Batch of 3 targets.
Target 1
Amino acid sequence: MITAEQILAEFPEARESESDGHIEYYVHCRRSHRKGGIYKMSINGDTGLYYCHDCGASGSVLNDYLDIANQFLPSSIEREAVVQKKKKKEYIEWKDGIPSPGDMMEMSSLDDDHPAIVYVKKRGMTVDIISRYGITYCRKGQYKFSNGGGTTSGRIVFPVYMLGKLVGWQARIIDTFTPRGRRAVWQGEDIGWIYPIKQEDGTWSDFIVPKYFTCPGMKRGASIFGFDLALAQGKDLVVITEGPVDCLKVGQKSISTFGSKLTNQQIRIIKSNWDSIIWLLDKDIDTESTWFHRVLSDLSTGSSVNWLKLSSCLDPGESNQQEIWKEIHQHIIKT
């Protein structure tokens, strides 16, 4: 069986779909095609076998794409710091043996009207929160995405620390909508804003640009954003959210797991460190699905667990911190 973390690390553009009782991932085929191969390759989540519906290529993702032996291990405490090499190009190291997304800048050094500052302020992130979590801005990225999807330039970088060690990071695009409803995506100082076109199927012409780009080699399924800060608040309660922005909005008693589908390893880490768990769901989570009940059952075994969606029908990242905690306390009292 192949995990979602493995797929997304290699194919950040991946889309999930349920098919005959298993998860199917649709990604861009990397071979040459007359039609581009965009979302033409399907990967069976149970077997790891892939098939391109455009060129007919098939095989095993584990054998053909994933070099598991070279992946970083977040649980590794003693690790020699090395500069990673890929295709004969040296990559800048951040620290603890983790590669950097590129040339990073402290957010405090940016002007008030800089897209990164405007973005975080619109989402209620203060300078204090930014510095507390070590959030930075990548001025010039060293990672280039396939199919013309841009680079890590112009992204906000969320570092992931566990037990004092940097185990990876996630870089998020900066996007906004103009007063006329036109979407704009920031590509860094060298390119500036790009303005995608909304297509007939409802997608945007920049859909090949990944919203999030995760540090190559980071074990997403074993990593938790905000772990150290939440642990420092005590073991009595933790709130699980889906992404770093949601985590920041909830506050220091919260963590995020880089997606809704918690892994067994993340569940073990959470249950071994906190006594009471609140699972704060995004509005689009299907609570009737098989995977949700499986994860809820695993979380609940031997632990006190509650889950809820905000009554405002907003995701945590779109909500007010005071209102979020008001609903959490009300939910705990009711249950």
Target 2
Amino acid sequence: MTPSFDNLRVLSLESRRAKEMASLISSYGGRPVSAPSMREVPLESNAEAMAFADVLERDGFDLVILLTGVGTRTLIAVVERVKGGRDAFLAALKRTKILARGPKPVAVLREVGIVPWLTAPEPNTWREVLAVLDEKRQELSLAGKRVAVQEYGAANPDLLAGLEQRGARVTRVPVYQWALPEDTGPLEAAVRAIAAGEIDVALFTTATQVVHLLKVAQSLGLAEAVRRGLAACVVGSIGPTTSEEMREHGIAPDVVPEHPRMGFLVREAAGRAREVLSVKRR
């Protein structure tokens, strides 16, 4: 039997993939409520990225950790735009050990003919990054090594601390950051709908969506009402990082698919929504 939301109201906080998410929700019989919660903002100054490129081209790093596909692609584009070419930068990347956090940075590297030294397995969190490095410590001990970390949106203090505890000299390379959408109207409407009990299922695919939803809720004086509203609906989460962010704010995820992919999240939420709601709203 195909899982179905059976006409439940399903909140999506996706931005770039909002249409795709809404289509998925509809295909499983849900009524999608789209509230884009974030936008990618290139850093106004790319000083850190260019400094990284200069040092890399002089073989100044022992390891480069690429955390996202968007960040990797943006980094290459920044170097090409500022330097008027990217050949020297790509050649330096090829000479350097690269750890890719998951399939997205791997795909970008493949486009430019680079194969990473290591790839962190699912669910692709900082824990897997450190674990795979520990497995390879005979080949590359981090003690005293120069490690560059391409960041996405915000620094990951757990990853940075873990690298430093292993003796690495870490250089952060911020490439882009997340901001609230220019039009926060849909997100504000979603906050009010959750607070009023008008949402049955809320799906989160990144930790930043959690942060931004609560930030807007706080600005409207509805933070506690939103927490109560989420406690009364089905909350879906992709991956440990998103779930950890929820728990830090007192929100318990109900559906966490084994594979951290949007399609798996929607399907599993559709299959369990009625059961979870019957318990929560009893």
Target 3
Amino acid sequence: MRGVHIFMNYSFLNLGEEVLRSSDVPLSVEEIWEVAEKKGLTDKLGSSGKTPIRTLSARLYMDIKNSKNTIFEQVSKRPAKFFLKGKTADLAAYEETLEKESKEKETSFKERDLHILLSTFVNQDAHFNCYTKTIYHENSKKREKGYNKWLHPDIVGIYFPFEEYKNNTLRLLEALKENPYKLFAFEMKIDLNFSNLREYYFQAVSNSSWAHEGYLVTLNTEEDTQFIDELRRLNNAFGIGIIKLNPEHITQSEILFSAKTKEFLDWNTIDRLVNENSDFESFINDLMEDIKIGKIKSNYDSTFKDDDDAYDYAKSKRINNI
């Protein structure tokens, strides 16, 4: 009977106290509940309801606010974490950890931090050997919502044949109406997996229609066999290539699937891009000037000279926790 009596009177506050008493650091409500489930403490509750975590949260906040004799205290707001009053031995260290985590989040890398890594790879890789320019969507003309959605990629590139062919050969190619130049479109993403694949892939399909080759570039790729098979199927059907960046050895980045090369460019889209985005207009003006003089003199995106410089940069940005 004593066991039944204890079981029947076990409350959410009892559960919170038992978990926090065994913990060396403050915990969020979700963490308290997770620990309680692992220890089987949730089974002691007479009834946990449909939303037990919300109930636990409400009980803790009410007890802290309304009870003069509460044993709980809230030690942080974002995220909200709780501890037992008087149990302060590790609080200083914990607050230092919170501050460090907050700073790390503030300095965590952004998608655009990957641009210089991609530019370095495609500039040095034999397949591309191209010069790039970042296209900032915020520099597109302000239109009604959705008008310019998926219009242009994150980065565009141009292959110049100046170092590969002599001037006489280039003039011959021009006379024969052969095009030795190649335009590239690159859509950059940090993670690529089943949950976002279709959205990201067809975004790349949409904003690379104007170029000779379009690529979806990612830092982290799901390595599941079925996922790779789906990438292959999409590549066969729509022709967008996949590049996986290697921030530790940028020149060893991989072209998982090569793009299908288009013979003809989409001039209507190119004209619209020139009209809608000043960065793209500048890119076209620069490459036309360089083609005219037969030399690369315009300013394109910066690149690193070698893998060591790229590695130091990735480390400074905490890219993939390097």
